[in-house]
Automatic annotation (TrEMBL):
<dbReference type="InterPro" id="IPR046346">
    <property type="entry name" value="Aminoacid_DH-like_N_sf"/>
</dbReference>
<keyword id="KW-0560">Oxidoreductase</keyword>
<feature type="site" description="Important for catalysis">
    <location>
        <position position="154"/>
    </location>
</feature>
<feature type="binding site">
    <location>
        <position position="229"/>
    </location>
    <ligand>
        <name>NAD(+)</name>
    </ligand>
</feature>
<dbReference type="GO" id="GO:0005829">
    <property type="term" value="C:cytosol"/>
</dbReference>
<dbReference type="GO" id="GO:0000166">
    <property type="term" value="F:nucleotide binding"/>
</dbReference>
<dbReference type="GO" id="GO:0006537">
    <property type="term" value="P:glutamate biosynthetic process"/>
</dbReference>
<dbReference type="Pfam" id="PF02812">
    <property type="entry name" value="ELFV_dehydrog_N"/>
</dbReference>
<feature type="binding site">
    <location>
        <position position="78"/>
    </location>
    <ligand>
        <name>substrate</name>
    </ligand>
</feature>
<keyword id="KW-0547">Nucleotide-binding</keyword>
<dbReference type="GO" id="GO:0004354">
    <property type="term" value="F:glutamate dehydrogenase (NADP+) activity"/>
</dbReference>
<protein>
    <recommendedName>
        <fullName>Glutamate dehydrogenase</fullName>
    </recommendedName>
</protein>
<dbReference type="InterPro" id="IPR006096">
    <property type="entry name" value="Glu/Leu/Phe/Val/Trp_DH_C"/>
</dbReference>
<comment type="similarity">
    <text>Belongs to the Glu/Leu/Phe/Val dehydrogenases family.</text>
</comment>
<comment type="subunit">
    <text>Homohexamer.</text>
</comment>
<feature type="active site" description="Proton donor">
    <location>
        <position position="114"/>
    </location>
</feature>
<dbReference type="InterPro" id="IPR036291">
    <property type="entry name" value="NAD(P)-bd_dom_sf"/>
</dbReference>
Amino acid sequence: KDRNPNESEFHQAVKEIFLSLIPVFAKQPKYMEAGILERIVEPERMITFRVPWTDDQGKVHVNRGFRVQFNSAIGPYKGGLRFHPSVNASIIKFLGFEQIFKNSLTGQPIGGGKGGSDFDPKGKSDAEIMRFCQSFMSELGRHIGQDTDVPAGDIGVGGREIGYMFGQYKKMRGAYEAGVLTGKGLGFGGSLARTEATGYGTVYFMQEMLKDKGLQFHGSTVVVSGSGNVSIYAIEKATQLGAKVVACSDSNGYVYDKNGINLDTVKRLKEVERKRLSEYVDAHPEAEYYEGSTGIWSIPCDIALPCATQNEIDEESAKLLVKNNVKAVGEGANMPSTLEAIDVFLNNGVLFGPAKAANAGGVAVSALEMAQNSARIAWSFEEVDAKLHAIMENIYKSSVEAAEEYGHPGNLVVGANIAGFLKVADAMMFQGLV
Ligand code: NDP
């Protein structure tokens, strides 16, 4: 904490992982002797830069850009870019740190990185978004490459933003380096099923977890927070599997629809018109809209999928979910539950799928996009979806096995952290002190 003051989110992410690793260090002191912990919490590189841009009135604005290249022991840095006013060094470092272990868990050769800006895309015109993305890439571009660092989307960065950044990068390099970004449009190197991957992957992961306890999505009542990329496709897959998703949210409030959320309306509002969720009730007057996003956790449900942002479930919300008999919680977002909330779930027998494992489907399919770009081929939706499904089953299996082997059966927080850590730590040992 002395070394990284005022970085509470980063401290939280590190604490969760280090607590999980206690049994590893007890069993295998070699990692301690090699200084793996001290090395793994220090990013290999952290880049901060100025992003100047002009709005449609010609007024100059300056935002701050970040890229943390955290760990390249098992592959090129890989992780999304977030555009949101809350972005700062602590947020980027917590996300980058988690990404190391998540990427390792996918079984693919990708290291950990993350980036973004405190730019707020809300209410900006298309032309403003384009100018911002071009300015952002004109600096980031010199630090990335298909074999060094491969960014993707995250909050506030979707296909439109990736397209503008890819165009700027191509112009800077004077070469068509398709694999430098993932989440690209389908016409220029994007992968089918990448848009769906994180949300679908979260549901596939939870499916495995539920199956082990004789439970299923079919017939369950589900609450999904957020209404962005991860949420929309978690809602879609859960609904396809026969669940009824009764609520979703954005940063202003949440919608409760006892008939089940109409996903076409959410997609139109969020993906096409870029509007607020409050307008959902205009199309569905029988639904209810409430101001304030955390109220969503007061709705009784069997399965809760937090898919919006970090620390959206605190201890109080977790207790409310438990009181209302929630059976399983799957983290589609990154670190959506506070450490206290996780304790509430684990101590009350709630099945808990931690983010690193449950939302790894997005980056896994990003790595499949890189593979397709390298081979200059394109797989069908069904092929990518089947690979995603198999990857999520494997992540579940390796997390369960690690939890058992290290004395915490059923605790997937511990299991996922350990399984993700071991591969990276071993690679770091083999590669020496670099
Ligand atoms: P989007 O920008 O597409 O959607 C984010 C959603 O969360 C929006 O509904 C947004 O509402 C809401 N939200 C954002 N910030 C807040 C906040 N402070 N309080 C309440 N609601 C908020 O992002 P994604 O769906 O891509 O990302 C969601 C989460 O999933 C993030 O934690 C991200 O890191 C994680 N994730 C994403 C992956 C991906 O492939 N996209 C991969 C793995 C993890 P509003 O529109 O009002 O801002």
